[in-house]
Structures are given as C-alpha cells and as structure tokens.
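Dear Dr. L.,

I hope this message finds you well. Following up on our conversation about the binding site, I have prepared a predicted three-dimensional model of the protein together with magnesium ion. For your records, I am including the exact sequence and ligand specification that went into the calculation, followed by the structure tokens. Please feel free to forward this to your student if that is useful.
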Amino acid sequence: MKNNLIQNSDQISEKKINWEDVQIVFKEKFGNEIFESWLKKIVFVEEYKNYLLLSVSTRFIRDWITSRYLDQILQIIKIQKKEIIRIEFIIDTLKDSKLTEKKTDLKSFSNKNISFLKDSYLQYNRIDPNKNFENFVIGESNKLAFEASKKVSNDISHYNPLYIYGGVGMGKTHLLNAMGLKLKTINKVMFISAERFMYQFVKSIKSNDMVKFKEYFRNTDVLLIDDIQFMNGKEAMQEEFFHTFNALLDKGSQIIVSADRPPSKLVRIQERIKSRFSGGLVVDIQNPDKELRYKIIKIKSEELKYLNSNSIEISEEIKIFISTEIKTSIRELVGALNRIVSFSRIYNKVPSLAETKVILKDLLSIPENKVTMDVIQTEVCKFFKISKNEMLSSRRSRYLVRPRQTAIYLAKSLTSKSLPEIGRAFANRDHTTVIHSVKTIERLKKIDSELNSNIDNLKNQILLKKSNEI
Ligand code: ADP
Ligand code: MG
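The resulting structure of the complex is given below.
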C-alpha cells in the first residue's frame, strides 16, 4: 500500500495533465456545438494530487457544465490521469479564456513532449466542410474579402498572394477554409496555421528532416496560411518561409494568407516578407454592422433549426437583442446563438429576455448582472405589502406563502444562484422547498393570468432597478 502511494506520487510529479489535450478530446466527444458554447470556456487553474481546479466566468456556466457534463468530463480526464477523482470549479469573472487560449498555443509550441501530436503534416491539413462559401453571410464589412476569395477560388493566381486581415472572430479562417474546400477539388492544397508551420519547422530541424519539409511545402498548388501574425522571430524559419514563398510564386502556385493586421503592422517579420504580402491583393474584414449581425443570427438560427430538426423558434425579440448587444465578433455572436439553442433544446422552451441575459452574461457588454437576492426580496415585499421578516419567517399563511414562492421563483429565473444557495437566502430553507416553490409558480402562471402579469411586472421592476443602479 505504502509502495503504491509512493509510486503514485511519483507519477503525479512526472505526468501533468495537458489541458490542450483534454480539450481536443472534449471537442471530439461532445461535438463542436457543446464544445464551442460551454466547454471551451473552461480555464485550467491548477492540478492537485487527486483533483483539478478549473475556472469559468459565471455561475450559470458552472452550473450548466456540472449538471450536464461533469461525469463525462471527469471520465475524459481520468483517461489522462486516473488519480483525479474530482473536479472543482471557481468562478473567475476576470479570467478571459481567450488569453489562456493564446498561452496554451505558445506553450504547446515550446513543449517538447507533446506526444499526442502525430508526425504527419496532413494532420493539420484539415479543411472543415462546414465552413464554405454557401454559408458565409455577406454584408458591407466583409463583401470585398468575400469577393476576392471567390475570385481566387475560380481562377488561381489572379490575385497573388491574397492577404486577408481583420479582428478576431470575423470570418478569416472561414474564408480560407472555403477557398481550400473549393480549390482542393482540382488542386493540391495545403492549409496550415502559422503556428503549426513554425512547429513543423522546428521539429523537422530537430529530426533532420528539412528535405521532407521543403518538399512538402513547395509541392503544393495552393498554400493557405492562417494567422500569419504568429509567425515571428526565428530568423532561420523566416528564411525558409521566404524561399518557400518565392518558389511557390515562381511556379504559379497560389498563396493565401490571413492575419489580424495589415502587412505593414506585422511585428518581427522580415521586411521583405511584408513587402511580398503587400505586393498582392490586401483586403480587410471590418467589424460587422448591426444589419449583418442580424442577418447572421437569422440565417444561423434557421440552419440550427434544420440541423437539430426541432421546432423551437427563437423569438424575434431575442434575435434583435443578441444582434444588438453582441458586437465584438461573429464568433461570439454565433456562440451566443448556440447557447440559446442548447438551452431551448434542454428545457424545451425558448428563454425569455431575462433568462437570455443570464445565459449570455459573460458575453454581454452590459455590466455585471446585479440582480441580488436582496433586491428581489425587497421588491417582492414592497409589491405584496409584507415585511421582509414576514417573508423569511416560517409562517404559512396564504398571504405570505405566495409572495415567498414568487420571490423564490424570481431568484431562480433572474439570478444564476443554485437551488441550495437560494434556499439559504430564504432563512435556510431546504432546496426541495425551492423546487416546490418554483414548480408551483410555474404551474400557476399558466392558469392565473393575474399572477402571471404580476410576475412580469415584478421582473421588469427588478431588472429596471438593476439598470438604474448601474
Ligand atoms: P477569424 O478566423 O477571423 O478569427 P472565424 O473564421 O474562425 O474567425 O469565424 C468565427 C466563427 O464565426 C466561425 O464559426 C465562422 O464560421 C463564423 N463566421 C464568421 N463570419 C461569418 C459569416 N460572414 N457568415 C457566417 N459565419 C461566419
Ligand atoms: Mg481564425
């Protein structure tokens, strides 16, 4: 037994969980929709002897993940490390998963022990059939990039190189992918991110495989390189890239590059490479305007409805709300819609506006959802003209029971607090009481139109109060 323990602790220090690895499995096991909407947001914090500490940015996301996916998540993690027996979440509103994404990318590049990466270049030459020209929605901000991409796909080396730039989540990878998809029907296509290119380069040098590397990249008819801004430093590699670039142009191959900024703003990339980029066609994708955002929501929600073959129709109000509020990127926009759809599928109803705000809290630029238990209790007491002591008391008179149940119901629908947390805020009531109250009100709402409209009024008052506070 003792021996075993020692052995185990040795293993622990040897083998750390590779979070990137875990996320790859998440994506495979849960599918893209669940991964993009929920699991991608999980940030790895720390690994302890037999448990993992993870963080997410809102309670709602934590509750959603733990109630639906925790068992499978644990199983997946156990495959990497069987010692892990539980997972703990912390809520960290400041931690931005985007930052961590970037960090892990860089880490993977320098980590020499990435056993899960197979040696084949082809592994990264994956073109996603779901990102094509047909489902790329066009608006003012991306029209030029779209047209140039189409042109190149019909007639290679028309614009050569083609350089597309724009902010994160604006559709650059989608367009590159669409071009790859179209072009690969008659051409040899190589689609790779700049980071992967660097990784392969370093690896080929280490394994004395440069000849193969050169052959591989110089043999293609179309070279698509995504996120070129990550190709920086490393003189020898830039040298190789420059030569590959020239060799390809000489033989009439098409080069397509994406970046988050124009060529002249690239840092730590040789001037001659930048000037090569500028020599072709440079087009940008700008932030989507409201019209395009709405169009995307409209088209995507039809698409999702069809894919999931369900009849849930997201209300116009929600569509307008999402396209008005989520301005940062198309990725976030699509992510928000996916979340609403997965909520609707599970609860078999479309979320109300208030629920939407809770579900999307971490994506909305409206400040922290400040609906507190206290505000709910105060407003409900005021409305029903009872005192807070009466509400929290254990008395069961009818004139107290309904307001109490209403407040509990509102706490459940307007905050992301768990059932036990709500129970605690109501003088330590049991979570079964909370469930009972919520169910009772839900049932009554359907048959009692006065109660229903009272609740709507209360909801509005509480939410209004919240926005006044901010
Ligand atoms: P980028 O590479 O610019 O960061 P992506 O191409 O990865 O952005 O786009 C993010 C997400 O948004 C993807 O799911 C993509 O399919 C979707 N998307 C972006 N632009 C559009 C568009 N114009 N029409 C439809 N979907 C889009
Ligand atoms: Mg991209």
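In brief: The first strand starts at residue 43 and ends at 47.

With kind regards,
A. P.
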